[in-house]
Amino acid sequence: MAMDTDKNSYTIIFAIGMVLVVGALLAFTASSLKPNIDENKRLEKQQNILYAMGVNENDESSATFVSTTDAPELFNKYIKKQMVIEGGKVSEDDQAYLIDVKKEQSNAKAGLERKLPLFVGEKDGKTYYIAPIRGKGLWDAIWAYVAMDENMVVQGAYFDHKGETPGLGANIKQRFFMDDFIGEHLKADGKFKGITVAKGNADPKNENKTDNEVDAIAGATITGDGVTAMIKSDLKLYVSYFNNLKNN
């Protein structure tokens, strides 16, 4: 006996069947691609950390990562130690770069202890301390990897975003903005002050590295405020580590 395709019940059964089939296909595709997605995220984090400490393929103007092929080898070459700071205690963990900063921020808001990853790199006889930070821009998440010396003077930085406005807030990942942070002091008179992305900054050429300011991007005030807040809130959490480092 043939099914009456004009009935509402047929339409409902057909729709349910399609939902189940499509859902199953999407779930299968997602599970199949997950290893590749996870691997790409792992390589991207290695590239970001290396970029911040100056291991990159930049030309005169553009920001360029080392290749994904070379990233694992270079990461092992330049990153000498991976650490986790938790509750004032410091431990080594060779998987610290995989810590989810967003999740750790949520844990802190829930009253749980936050894990702070910190990477120690060495290049050309110089030691770099690279910290991942995360905040909120105009439209969505922004994040960065900031390389510092033992005095919390910035040695390099890489910024990125999820959905800032092209040509405006999205320019936080351009060389002209990121390079302004190099040499900037995070402390003033021995106390942590952070770095303000300042509109109307009196030092547009960024020659004064002790004013705790860099010039803002025109038309991207809210994104710049997000960068300021991200630096001040997240990097402040590392102050006790650097204080102990100086005292030892």
Provide the descriptors you would attach to this structure in a database record.
single chain; 248 residues; alpha+beta; 6-stranded antiparallel β-sheet; two-stranded antiparallel ribbon; 10 strands; 23% strand
How many strands? 10
> Using only CA atoms, what is the Rg?
23 Å
Task: Write down the domain tally.
Answer: 1
User: What percent of residues adopt helix (DSSP H or I)?
Assistant: 25-40%
Order of helices and strands: HHEEHEEEEHEEEEHH
List low-confidence stretches.
none
What does this molecule look like?
The protein has helices at 8-52, 71-78, 101-109, 175-178, 221-234, 239-247; strands spanning 79-86, 89-92, 116-123, 126-136, 141-148, 154-161, 187-188, 191-192, 196-198, 213-215. By secondary structure, it is of the alpha+beta class. The protein has one domain (45-247). The strands form 3 sheets. A 6-stranded antiparallel sheet has the order 2-1-3-4-5-6. Helix 1 crosses helix 2 (71-78). The longest helix has 45 residues, at 8-52. It starts with 7 loop residues before the first helix and ends with a helix. The model has no long low-confidence stretch (mean pLDDT 90).
